[in-house]
Amino acid sequence: MHHGDKILVKVWDQPTRLFHWALVILVAVLWASGELGNLDIHMKLGVWALALLLFRLGWGVVGSPTARFTHFVRGPAAIADYLRAARTGAVRSVGHNPLGALSVLALLGLLIAQSVSGLFTTDDIFTNGPLVHLVPSKTSALLSSLHRLGGKLVLALVALHLAAVAFYTLIKKDDLIRAMITGTKRVPKGVEGVRFAHPLIALALFALACAVVWGGLALAGR
Ligand code: HEM
Question: By 3-state DSSP, what share of the chain in percent is helix, strand and coil, each rounded to 5?
């Protein structure tokens, strides 16, 4: 198909794109600092990751259509349908496809578990997560093990995610990376873009997420 048959439509709003790339940077630095034992910076950035993830949960409810969980969380039947249709190469809608949505959910779920368990993680030498004192030492030992295991899982899921994106970009010629940077995508005529939610709602939501995280830590921490 040549360019004449295609139009440019809106796919990802600014808050979703900013969230995505901020998370990419945070996770890279979190992984490295965790492995290197650079725990001061690790814990500071881990709390930022928590605030960012909390924002994303809210944006998945009140954000633009393509960012909403109700838009992209689909059952096994929809996934099977998608796989059958995908063989013909037809793009029928914008946003996450039903299979890619699974990877989004897995990554968000794991990173939330990772940033929450981190609060209760101890290295048993000098460094305690800010909420370690709230739980029995057995519990923090368990959560610390889960946190270390989670670190390995993050690596595996990120690798899978990158492999999938490479497949779509190189083999299916669907430029997902450009869409996540510019927010727009070239699609066949007839495929509709979406109307974005107001960015000020995102700003308010992010402020709320920060208030919950740092407010909560101030109340529960010591
Ligand atoms: C998405 C967020 C996070 C990711 C991806 C992440 C990842 C990691 C990784 C890969 C390690 C190294 C594990 C190992 O040594 O095998 C680690 C260790 C650690 N993390 Fe996180 N972390 C996150 C959030 C947090 C948060 C929010 C805190 C606390 C505020 C935290 C506290 C710690 C501590 C104390 C260790 C040292 C554990 C040890 O040496 O035994 N992390 N993290």
Answer: 70, 5, 25
Q: Is 39 in the pocket of ligand 1 (CB under 6 A)?
A: yes
- Find out whether the beta carbon of 34 lies less than 6 Å from any atom of ligand 1: yes
- pLDDT tens, per residue, the chain with 222 residues: 455 688 999 999 999 999 999 999 999 999 999 999 999 999 999 999 999 999 999 999 999 999 999 988 888 888 888 888 877 766 667 888 888 888 899 999 999 999 999 999 999 999 999 999 999 999 999 999 999 999 999 999 999 999 999 998 998 888 899 999 999 998 888 888 999 999 999 999 999 999 999 999 999 976
Structure tokens at 186: 């070239």
Give the predicted TM-score (pTM) of the model.
Answer: 0.93
CA 216–ligand 1 middle distance (angstroms): 19
Give me the CATH topology for the region 3-220: Fumarate Reductase Cytochrome B subunit (1.20.950)
46 lines ligand 1 (CB under 6 A): yes
Question: Who's near 214: CB < 8 A, 6+ residues apart?
Answer: 47, 51
